[in-house]
Design goal:
Layout (H helix, E strand, L loop, with lengths): L4 E3 L2 H15 L4 H4 L8 E3 L19 E5 L9 H13 L7 E3 L2 E3 L34 E6 L14 E5 L3 H9 L3 E2 L13 H11 L1
C-alpha cells in the first residue's frame, strides 16, 4: 500500500508528482497498477525557532552562500568561479562562462585588494588574505552535499565548503550570510511555474 507524501518544498512536490505520473503511465504492468496516480502530496511550511541574529554592523558584502547539491547540472559553479577569478585578477582565465551560444570570460578592471586578498605570486599559487586590508575578506560559502565542487586552486582561501551540515548548523550558517546566491544551472532548477520560466528566459534574451 502506498503512503501519502509530505514535502518541505513545493518544487519537490512538483517533481515527485511528475515521477509518480510517469510510473502510473508506465508500460510495466506492475508499476502502472500500483496506484501511483492516487498518491496524495502536501507541502509542509516549517517554522524555525532560531535565535534572532544581530544586525550587521558593516554594510560591506563579505559572505555569500550558494546552497544546493554540488552537482554542476544543478548549480552554475563554473560560471561563479570564472566571474570571481575575473574580479580578483582582472584578466582572462579561459572559456568558463556560457552566454548566447558560446563560452567566454569577461574582463574585469577590479583587483584582489578590493576583495581583501593579495595578488597571486605565481600562476599556481592561491589568493592569500591581505592582513593589512581594512575590509573583511570576501568569502564564498558552498553549502550542500553530493559531488565535488571542484574549486580552482587559486580560490582555495576564498571558497569554503560546508558539507552535510546538521539541521541547526545548516540554518545557523545560512543566517550568518550577507546574501544567498541562487546560481541555478538551468531554468528547470528555478522554483517557478513553467509559464514564468519561459517569461523569465525571454526577458534575459
Amino acid at each position: 500500500m502506498l503512503a501519502d507524501v509530505l514535502c518541505f518544498r513545493s518544487s519537490v512536490g512538483r517533481r515527485l508528482h511528475r515521477n509518480f505520473r510517469a510510473l502510473a503511465e508506465s508500460n510495466n504492468e506492475t508499476l502502472n497498477s500500483a496506484g501511483y496516480e492516487y498518491v496524495k502530496m502536501d507541502v509542509y511550511l516549517h517554522v524555525l525557532d532560531l535565535p534572532q541574529k544581530q544586525k550587521h554592523i558593516s554594510r560591506v558584502l563579505s559572505n555569500v552562500a550558494i546552497q544546493g547539491s554540488f552537482r554542476f547540472s544543478r548549480r552554475e559553479y563554473f560560471g561563479v568561479y570564472a566571474d570571481l577569478l575575473a574580479s580578483l585578477e582582472g584578466e582572462h582565465f579561459g572559456p568558463l562562462h556560457w552566454r548566447r551560444g558560446h563560452y567566454f570570460h569577461p574582463i574585469s578592471s577590479e583587483d584582489p585588494g578590493a576583495w581583501g586578498y593579495l595578488p597571486l605570486t605565481k600562476p599556481d599559487s592561491v589568493y592569500e588574505v591581505d592582513e593589512t586590508a581594512a575590509l573583511q575578506p570576501f568569502q564564498l560559502h558552498l553549502i550542500g552535499n553530493a559531488g565535488d565542487p571542484e574549486i580552482p586552486t587559486a580560490l582555495s582561501n576564498v571558497v569554503r565548503v560546508h558539507r552535510d551540515l546538521p539541521y541547526d548548523d545548516f540554518y545557523s550558517v545560512i543566517q550568518s550570510m550577507d546574501l544567498v546566491l541562487p546560481a541555478f544551472a538551468t531554468l528547470e532548477c528555478w522554483p517557478l511555474p513553467s509559464v514564468l520560466r519561459v517569461d523569465c528566459y525571454l526577458t534575459q534574451l
